[in-house]
Amino acid sequence: MTHAGAVVAAVAGVVAFFLYSSIHRIEEGHLGVYYRGGALLISPSSPGYHIMIPFITSFRSVQTTLQTDEVKNVPCGTSGGVMIYFDRIEVVNMLAPSAGQHMKVYDIVKNYTADYDKALIFNKIHHELNQFCSVHTLQEVYIELFDQIDENLKLALQKDLNVMAPGLTVQAVRVTKPKIPEAIRRNFELMEGEKTKLLISAQRQKVVEKEAETERKRAIIEAEKFAQVASIQFQQKVMEKETEKKISEIEDSAFLAREKARADAEFYTAQRVSEANQVKLSPEYLQLMRYQAIASNSKIYFGKDIPKMFMDLSHFVPSGKASEEVNVWPNKVREKASEAVDGL
């Protein structure tokens, strides 16, 4: 009984050991690939617990989520013969991100082993970076084209992976600043310092130019404002003068109308008086006025007719000339009477 119990215990231990060795776990975000006798089995396993034949079958866990591979201390020779070193290059990649692409994982592992990133990424980084450096100068690699190295490496890697390993994609590449000889680095620092001074000077000049431009625009605005104010004031004065002119024209027109009306009235009055005089000064009326003028004299002597009329003027003239004056007087009286009538 004791011997039988020992055998059973030994068998149970062996079975337990075999079970322990056959059960394995695949983490989430990974696929399990199996080797039996060194040959890769076709069907990868999904995350979870699985059983395999111990000592005959082995497995490797292959990550299918985003992972970052670091390539360190990569040497690179420029076209000028200067050797520089990139301290660290990071490559973010993903294997078969979509479901149902297990066969792509199988093909990649079969062709490049489970450590496919060494052949497809690490070695390609060295190759592509040296290709880039060999056709560019140190100035271009270190300064001018440094910002393009990341994108160039990514495009070159992805181009080769699309042919060699479909299903493996490169998401991003990050390259650190390369290490260069100390003497060259100091020269670059001095050059950058001078360039910085130049940029500062250029920026200061731009600031001065901008301030001058701002001042010029301010002066233009002020001048335009003054010009507009002067124009408005001038227009206002012109309008005032035009208003005064219109008022003067109105007043002149009114005065002219009044004077014309007055002249018309005076002309009408004179015309009416003239018409009245034409009616009034008839020959009979003039004869009457003549007689009234003659009658207004103090002394008048009548003969048979008007020419023999005489006046007593002896006290006005000397005695020797009385007869002579009497003969002339009727004619003078006649002239005076005519003048009196004409004056009326």
Automatic annotation (TrEMBL):
Membrane topology of this protein:
Single-pass type II membrane protein
Q: Which InterPro entries match?
A: Band_7, Band_7/SPFH_dom_sf, Erlin1/2
Mind telling me which CDD domains this protein's record contains?
A: SPFH_like_u3 (cd03406)
Q: Which UniProt keywords apply?
A: Cholesterol metabolism, Endoplasmic reticulum, Glycoprotein, Lipid metabolism, Lipid-binding, Membrane, Signal-anchor, Steroid metabolism, Sterol metabolism, Transmembrane, Transmembrane helix
Stated name of the protein: Erlin-1
Q: What region holds the Band domain?
A: 21-192
Q: Where in the cell is it found?
A: Endoplasmic reticulum membrane
GO biological process assignments: cholesterol metabolic process; negative regulation of cholesterol biosynthetic process; negative regulation of fatty acid biosynthetic process; SREBP signaling pathway
**Family statement drawn from the similarity comment of this UniProt entry:** Belongs to the band 7/mec-2 family.
- What is the organism of origin for this protein? Callorhinchus milii
